[in-house]
Amino acid sequence: METLLLLRMDGVAESVLRADVRDLSFSPKGELNLKASVGSCNVEIQFSPRQRTPPFTAELQAKFAGLLHPLLTIQGCCQGVEVQLDQDHLAFGAVVQRCQARKRIVMMNTGGIDARFQWKTDNFPPELSITPAKGCICPGMEVPFEVTFAPVELINDKRYENLSCCVEGSPSPVTLTVTGSCIVASTSKEVVNFVCPVRGSHSQTLPVFNPTNQHCSIRPVVEGEQWSAASSVILEPHQNKTYKITYRPLSVTADGKKHLGSVFFSFPDGTGMLYSLQGTAEPPKAEDNIVHELPAKTHHTEMLPVHNWLSQQQRFRVLMEILKPDKPDATVSLKGLEYIEVPALARRDYKMSFFTYKEGHYNTKVTFRNEGSGDYLYYLVTFKATSPGVLSTIELVTPVRQTASATVQVENPLTTVTCLTTECKCPEISAPLLHTVPGQSKGSLSFEFQPLCAGESTALLTLHSHDLGFFHYDLLLTALPPPPEKTVHFNTCLGSSHSVLVKFTNHAHFKTEYSGKTDCPEFTVDKALPQAGSEVSIEVSFEPHQLGKVRGQLSVSSAIGGDYIFPLHGISLPPKAQGPFSIRTGHRVAIPFKNIFLQTTTFSFQVDNKCFTVKQADPILSKKTHNILISFEAPPEGFRGPWFGKLTVSSKCSEGHSRPCSWVYYLKGLPL
After folding, report:
1. pLDDT at 226 over 70
2. Which of 3, 140, 265, 307 has the most CB within a 10 Å radius?
3. Residues in contact with 549: Cβ distance below 8 Å, sequence separation at least 6, in sequence order
4. Roughly how many angstroms between the first and final C-alpha of the chain, as a whole number?
5. What angle do CA 4, 6, 8 make, to 5 degrees?
6. What pLDDT sits at residue 482?
7. What residue intervals traverse the membrane (predicted)?
């Protein structure tokens, strides 16, 4: 037995959209005959969506015997891309030339999968732009776009159609139409003027008003390379604000010409404000006014920074001028290189040397000029030359009363002869009072140092010229102790003395007194004799107290004339016999005898003829003279004379002498 079936499908969608019947099909179609009990057939169900399909549910039914029997339930969906804009037309209206107007559109993804998008900006006109130009949009996501209309040329009711955006997976692009026009901007009635020295700056503020109801950040357009300002201005709705702009010229305006520029403010609603700018660049001011104080006759180096304000290397010629005094001579000089090269936008130091012989104020000007463009910069430098310091220190060393000489050189830069006077308050320095130096040459001045007293001292030697000013030299003077003078020799017998007149030269420049002393008791000195011109004499006596050689030293000194050292050399010989001393009978004679020893001494007196008698004496004090009394009585015989005898005076070795000494005196007796 066979059953007759008829298959049919009834679908119910779970969303607003229903599946298209053509997208869902089954086979076989029509009536089917199935055998009883074991009859069956295969049914093929096919879903072929042609567009995005939301989730749906359908039921497959079989009809037999006039009744519908459900066989199975079919569920499905088709994930697809469905992207659209919230508006496909933007009207900007009138926008001021060189201004920008911005509007916002939104892209929505109502599909079920992610999609990439990209606007065909290559087909956009220059005055239109959109951001972002590309990206990815997720299901249920909204992407805002900012469309900017920035016309440059004046246009009237321009229409831009078919501005397309390709969406990945979408059969057709999303399109946008934009309309707008460009009008002339309103201009400020007043021209903003700027005045400053070249490479200086002058800043002014311009009023800016936000006419819109929205917070905005605008980018002013500044024309004219001499002006600079902030790149953006942030304005609140309907806010008044000031905008600072600076004029910084790099070249001088001449012949009545001016630098021209402008600054333009554009607002989000397409309106704008234009300011006209005029600048006058005056000649440059001094980069710096430098004042330097220094002693005259001192070499000074001044470092002047030279700035290159251009983006390319500059070569400057250097001009150095002395403004004051009006007619400078060769005693003042400014020196430096003739040219200096400075890299682009960099700085280099220029070395300038200054020297002057005399005190005074010297106002100078140093100009650095680009010979190609004529642009320049300059410095004013004032040098205050004070009294010159010590040019050098000269050291002189010599023994007392000997001379040491030195020489100083003085350069005369003038073309005429100059005369120098010399001054030194030290009396031991001898220098010519006047010294002349020919023009444009060097002169040498020699001076001498002849000290009188040993020691160290300092002095100042000054040379002066009306043309060249003062020259100061420090003198470090060292006078060494004097060497010994020539040895003075003495020769005498023990018991006698020998005096020598010692002479020396007084080198002091005026009269002075000398005192002398010896270091040996055998030598005694009298006070100095009066000066005979520059020669001084002093008497030294040698009185030995023992036999042999005796050495000593004579020191003659004066607070002004200094010290003199004389070595003394004496020779003591044995005593010589003296007499004869004549005595008449019945009379007596006194013979003086001096104790030349350094202590009290006992002497013995002996005569070898009985006709003569001598009286013994007590011990004799040192250096004291004792008169020895000798008496004579002629013998009664008939010899009428004369009679001779000898007196011997002896010292005893026990008195501390090295050996006994004796003195012999010859006696002669005469009758009445």
Report:
1. yes
2. 265
3. 569, 570, 571, 572
4. 232
5. 165
6. 86
7. none
Q: Based on the number of CB atoms within 10 Å of its own CB, is 295 exposed (0-12), middle (13-18) or buried (19 or more)?
A: middle
Spatial neighbors of 117 by CB under 8 A, at least 6 apart, are 83, 107, 134, 135, 136, 137, 143, 165, 166, 167, 168, 174
Phi, psi of 97 (to 5 degrees): -55, 135
Q: Which residue has the tokens 């002047």?
A: 304
Residue for token pair 């006419």: 211
By C-alpha distance, which of 501, 506, 503, 563 is closest to 534? 506
Q: Sign of the C-alpha dihedral, residues 290, 291, 293, 298?
A: positive
Calpha distance 481→647 (Å, rounded): 52
* Partners of residue 611 on adjacent β-strands: none
CA distance 516 to 503: 12
Q: Which residues contact residue 319 at a Cβ distance below 8 angstroms, ignoring those fewer than 6 apart? A: 366, 367, 369
Contact 587, 670 (CB under 8 A): no
What's the pLDDT at 7? 55
Q: Which region, left, alpha or beta, applies to residue 528 given φ > 0 means left and ψ of -120 to 50 means alpha?
A: beta
Number of residues that this document lists for the chain = 672
Cα–Cα distance, 170 to 158 (Å, whole number): 30
Q: What is the CA radius of gyration of the chain?
A: 67
pLDDT tens-place string over residues 522-567: 898 876 555 545 788 888 999 888 888 999 999 888 888 888 899 9
The confidence score (pLDDT) of residue 19 equals: 43
Grade residue 316 by pLDDT with cuts at 50, 70 and 90. Answer: very high
CB 41: neighbour CB atoms within 10 A? 10
Asked whether the CA dihedral 448, 452, 456, 462 is positive or negative, the reply is: negative
How many Å apart are CA 280 and CA 634, to the nearest integer?
147
**Other beta carbons less than 10 A from residue 224's beta carbon:** 17
> For residue 41, what are its two tokens?
């057939």
> What is the 3-state composition of the chain as percent helix, strand, coil, each rounded to the nearest 5?
0, 60, 40
- Give dist(CA 129, CA 115) in Å, integer: 22
The dihedrals phi and psi of 473, each to the nearest 5 degrees, come to: -135, 130
Residue at 512: amino acid letter:
T
The three-state secondary structure class of 123 is: helix
The first and second tokens of residue 451, run together, are 């000290």
Q: What's the one-letter identity of residue 421?
A: T
Q: Is the peptide bond before 580 cis (omega within 30 degrees of 0)?
A: yes
CA separation for the pair 246, 227 (Å, rounded): 6
Residue 103 is inside which H or E element, if any?
strand 101-109
Phi, psi of 36 (to 5 degrees): -70, 145
Non-local CB neighbours of 353 within 8 Å, separated by 6+ positions = 299, 300, 301, 302, 333, 334, 335, 336
What is the Cα–Cα distance from 607 to 648, expressed in whole angstroms?
6
3-class secondary structure for 490-558?
A: EEEEECECEEEEEEEECCCCCCCCCEEEECCCCEEECCCCCCECCEEEEEEEECCCCCEEEEEEEEEEE
CA distances from 528 to 324, 513, 538 (A): 66, 7, 5
Residue pointed to by tokens 């969608």: 13
Q: Are 24 and 81 in contact (CB under 8 A)?
A: no
Tokens standing for residue 193? 């003027």
Q: Given the DSSP bridges, would you call strands 2-13 and 31-35 parallel, antiparallel or unpaired?
A: antiparallel
